[in-house]
Amino acid sequence: MSNDIKVQSESSTIDDQTATKAEAREEPNSPLPTARPTRRSFLAGAAGLLGMMALGSCSWQEFFQQHYQRMTAKEIDEVVERLKAQYREKYGQDFVVGTEGPIDGTLFGYALDIQRCIGCRRCVYACVNENNLSRDPQIQYIRVLRFKDGTMDFEESEIYYNPDDVPEEGYYYMPVQCQHCANAPCTKVCPVRATWTEPDGLVVVDYNWCIGCRYCMAACPYQGRWFNWGDPSVPKDEITTQTHYLGNRPRMRNVVEKCTFCIQRVRVGKYPACVEACPVGARKFGNLLDPDSEISRIIRTKRVFRLKSELNTQPKFYYFFAT
Amino acid sequence: MQSSGFVSEAVRRLFVGPPVYYAWMALLTVAAVIGITQYIEQLQRGLVVTGMTSFVSWGFYIGNFTFLVGVAAAAVLLIIPAYLYDFGPIKEIVIVGEALAVSALLMCMMFVTADLGRPDRLWHLIPGLGILNLPQSLLGWDIVVLNGYLMLNLFIPGYILFRSYQNEPVNMRFILPFILLSIPWAVSIHTVTAFIYNGLAARPFWNASILAPRFLASAFCSGPALIILIFQIVRRYTGFHVKDEALHKLAEIVAVAMAINLFLAGAEFFKELYSDTHHLSPLRYLYVGIHGKGLLVPWIWTAMGFNIVAFIIFLIPATRKNFTTLNLGAVLIILGIWIEKGIGLIIPGFIPSPLGRVWEYVPTRVEVLVTIGIWSIGLLILTVLLKLIIPIEKGEFTRARQVAA
Prior knowledge:
Chain A is of the alpha+beta class. Chain A has helices spanning 14-17, 39-50, 60-63, 73-91, 122-130, 185-189, 215-219, 263-266, 273-277, 294-301; strands at 7-8, 96-98, 108-113, 143-148, 165-166, 171-176, 195-197, 203-205, 225-227, 242-244, 256-258, 283-287, 303-305, 317-321.
């Protein structure tokens, strides 16, 4: 039935879907400072080593900032004010940096109708926009895998498919993003507890606490985590200013980030951006603790499965067949 | 007064040596400085200057780190015969092994720091000030055991040398508990390092219980092989007495360890090949390549060839006792294990990715030069340590002589 709907697909070439930093590799004629170790650059660097935290926009307050969960309400307010000033200076706009906490009795869950998805990647780009994902080097929280009908082997899937129209005859699509596991392997391995599961089930990162060891990336079976190999860049006129501290606020270089189910939206009663963007309504979101919610009904009444369930990660992200 | 005498004499000794010593130190210093400038570039531009990607998120640095933890752990192979079995020839030289362990550990720490995206936030790891995620994070445990092992390997030889410097006997009742503790501790550093990878269900290539035993077996090949070479260099240039017996005993240990290493590798091959599941993919990528990609294939076969040839050399008594073949075997083992356990272990863990992508990794110029730089700093540290330790051991550098002079 989904084959009846023809939608123009958002193009994806290797360049813009890889979301690796391959494209950010230095070109032979790169205007960036190259690596000729002159004595001057060495001395400058040696001085820079000491004042490394001064690199970019890091102040002493930022350097000594405590873990998000260890800060008092007053300290968090100060941090938010500092961040807002910093973002205003960089992007020329006023930001909201929310710190809304979890709502009692809420456990967020997600369901995706694999039968209905047409592989158009509208969700990918809605996510990029909403979450201020770096355009270069490129990061995209959602990967859409294309499988041949009758197969479900990741190695045989394709993410760089690029037809004029989707869906394509003989294929089906499976978008994959952070699965917000109840038994998350990524949070367990973090040596500094910079990433954790919130009481409402969202797996989040304190970007200011992450040391950039990337152990969580090695631990994730879904490739749900991303690293800012270079300075993240978002055009000023495309920046989303409605943000959350644990969500889509502008990130810094060399830290890990990930899908938060749009914490900045779902904690104030909105749907994640990908849910709203889906043209065929394949994406469902809601409260798993509410037996009458759409998500609870889907899990109860439809045939559902979770990716790599043999790993016992217990994702709160379900795939289902509506019919 | 006394300590200043020690320091000035130590500094004087560091600047005296044959021309080859100056050349060696100059070479290492140049390589170290180049490495530091490259690291500064990495700090200024971020890890984008490395070859690592979202797909292969650990690379050359972590590979070298893993290899060197093994070298550090291998010091235990000198400690056991020296202190537990009182094997004279090795007891005389055990301190050199401990110096190697210290240098290897410092290199490990430098490699992990080089791999870190935010070294400015290292303080987040300090319990109290920051948060060390124990008991959950194996990386947290690794920090604990590596630092503990470093302390032990500084303290034990430090105490023995201090006594020797003072011309006083060593109080074995005092130091023996520390020596005994250092034995399981050596095993622990390599076990915990293996567990870092081993515990990740997302990476079937690492998620095999054979990983920690294999780590130890391969470490007990490469560590003693390196020690065999270092002892001969030390013997040649310092007149420090190293008996052939000690070297041959180490070579025997290498032969046994290599037999176990090859056996464990075979056991892993059998399991993966016979069950022929998706878990075979990383192994196939490593040994034959998949989807037309296989940058590591020539490397791993080289390593395999080196290890087997070296095993034969170390197995046959005639070639084991001949210094030409012994040294050839030692070099082959070091290179073979470095490939097998460095890039050959880390990179296939990421290929194919958990979602089936085959994205290859090649270290960049920055990574290679930083790596050479860290090795150079490590060898500088080792040279300095040996330069001071050996005269103390030989009784040429003591307090009495200082006072007399």
